[in-house]
Structure formats: structure tokens, C-alpha cells
From TrEMBL:
Regions annotated as coiled coil: none
Catalytic activity: a beta-D-Gal-(1->4)-beta-D-Glc-(1<->1)-Cer(d18:1(4E)) + UDP-N-acetyl-alpha-D-glucosamine = a beta-D-GlcNAc-(1->3)-beta-D-Gal-(1->4)-beta-D-Glc-(1<->1)-Cer(d18:1(4E)) + UDP + H(+); a neolactoside nLc4Cer(d18:1(4E)) + UDP-N-acetyl-alpha-D-glucosamine = a neolactoside IV(3)-beta-GlcNAc-nLc4Cer(d18:1(4E)) + UDP + H(+)
Organism listed in the record: Echeneis naucrates (Live sharksucker)
Protein name: Hexosyltransferase
Membrane topology, record value: Single-pass type II membrane protein
Amino acid sequence: MFVNFRRIHKCKCLQLLTTGLVLCMVMVCWEEADHHVVRHIRSYTYRYLINRYEFLNSSFIITSKHPHSKSSSTNVFGWLWDYSYLINHPQKCGGRDGDKSWDDVFLLLFVKSSPENFEQRQAIRDTWGNESFLWSELGANVRLLFALGMHPDVRQRSRVQAALLQEDKVYGDLIQQNFEDSFHNLTAKLILQYHWGHNYCPQAHFFMSADDDVFIHMPNLLKYLRQLESGQSGAKDLWVGHVYRGAPPVRRMKSKYYIPYDLYPWYSYPDYTAGAGYVVSRDVVAKIYHATLVTNSSIYIDDVFMGICAKTMGVYPQEHLYFSGEGKAPYHPCIYEHMITSHGHAADVRTLWHTATDPTITSNYRGYMGNLYCTAVRVMMLCLPYYQNTYSCMAAFT
């Protein structure tokens, strides 16, 4: 029998070349594949099969006999809660002109803002954060505050600070501490909010934290919170928002969310809500406040730090289908009818506010046929991968 050895050698060479090419592609793409597939499989397995997180108490709770050291704003234990105030309004939640009803704050609304984002703060004051409108039109006593640090650029700091002082003189709604306003100090900004709320506005029924590029449909939010409070169990142990379950730490050094192994060596974070916008009840504010006093705050991702504090205090996040994650919600009246928050709005806040809260727009989509039409529209919009970071597909059927 005749054997063509030349053909056999060609086949082997082709196999070797193909194998080498595949291995090269795997090596090049491994970081992405590991991040998007392998780490998520590990984290989900860890979250759903173990789901105890006992290591939080032993690794993040400080047992020092002297936790209130004032030697520095960030001591060796990682506390960030003793920064001094540069701008403060301790009486913000007090009565106005002797009106005692104004003392009963329904919602304390904290917006995380950067010092230079004046236009975004002004748009919020003019729309969904307008205290006077919310009181006169919706009957809700809401207090709006902006949480800030110092401008990160030392060369511009004095100029920006002077502008902030002038802005606060006009509006009286800035709360600022002397830490550098940067991504890696977001945990300091979270602690600022909870300490201020606990110390100066403990009577508020609800507390909300949001980014300054988030749109909040206040009529829908207030309606939802009032329904919770009027229920038989009331609003206790409430922490509601867009929940991330079994999220893995990011190990890519180029990512701003990078967390090294020595800081957090485990496969999965405890459950937490997106920091873009979430609501907690009054009792949870007190619990998180006390947790921040004894929790190592070296985790600089504020969403995750919130999850750690809440887990150690026995508070668990609740999913609401119309709290947005990192993405922007679709523009459509069938979405506005249920919308609570939408992320990624800087230039269109005023337009969206007037459109989304106009009752004449959503009234055209009510009744049996209107509900059927809106369900179909929401399915087409929300069940596509493009909107996976806003509202889930399940929201289409509510």
C-alpha cells in the first residue's frame, strides 16, 4: 500500500500551526474571558452555594479598644469618618419660620456631586430635587443636599472653593468635607452622607443616595415609599435599588474598579445595590452609621463598602425593577409610567423631567388596550441586551 508521507507532514504542520494560533488567541483574550466568564462562574458558585460571608466580621470589623483616634483623617485601621466640614448646614432638617410640620422630613435626599458640576446641581434643583415643588405639588417634605469633597487639582482648588462658597450662599444645600473629591474617595463620601443623616436628620423617614447624573421620577418614588410606609409591616430594614448579586471583584489592573487580592481575596462581594441611586429606611441609616464606626474602609468602591456594612448589620438589599443600574432607561411614556431612576443624564434632565412627569402623556396609554400596548413596547425595549444595565426584562411585565 502506497503512503503519501509528504501529505502527512503537511497535515501535521497545519495542525501545529492551527493549535499554535488557537493558543495565541486564548493567551491574548484570556484576561477578558477570565473577567467575563470564569470569574463570574466562580463568584456565582460562591454566592449561591456558600453565601455566608463570615469572613467579613473577622476581616473588616475593627476590634481596637481605641477606635476613635483623631490622629489623622485616615488612620492605620482605614477609618474615613473623621474628616472636618468645610461647608455644613446642621439646621437643614429643622423647622422653617416656626412651622413644626416642616420638621417631619419624609425623605432626606443626598446627591453625590463633584465640585465643578455646578450645571448638573442646578438642573437637579430646578427639576426633581426642587424642594418647594415637591412640598406644594406632591405634599412631600424632602430635603436636598449635595455631598462633596475638595477639588482634586490643587492649582484650581481655591478658585473652585470660592465658587462653591458663593453657590452655597445662594442655595444652602452643599455639604463638604476636607477630603479630595476623587473616585478612590467615594467611600469617604458615603460615610459623610450617613454620618450627616444620623447626626443632623435622624427624623427623616427615608434616606436616598444618588449620583448627580441620575434622573429620579419623584412622583413615582414618593408614591412607592408612601405605599411601603402605609403597609402593615411599615418600612423597616428597607434597602431597595438595583441589586447586584454575586458580583466578582475586578482583577484587571487597568480598570478603575480594580481590587487587588490582598485587599479582598475572595471570589464574590456580598450583595449590594448600584450606588447610582438607592433608598434605605430610617432604621437602616442608624445601622450603617454604627457599622462605619467599626468597619475598615479600605474598600474604595462605595457600593461594595455599603454591601459590607449592611451584611455585617444583617440588612439585605431588595430588588426594585425600575431602579436603574449603570445604564440609561429608554425614552418612552410606557417606561415613564413606572420609572424610578435612570442613570446617565447630564444635559437632558430638564427635558426629561417635563416629559416624564406630564400626566397628559402617560394618560394616553392606560386601560386594557393601553396596558397591552405598553407591555409589548417594554418587551421590545427591555428584553434586548442593550438595556440590560437599566431595567431587567421582568420589568416589562409589571
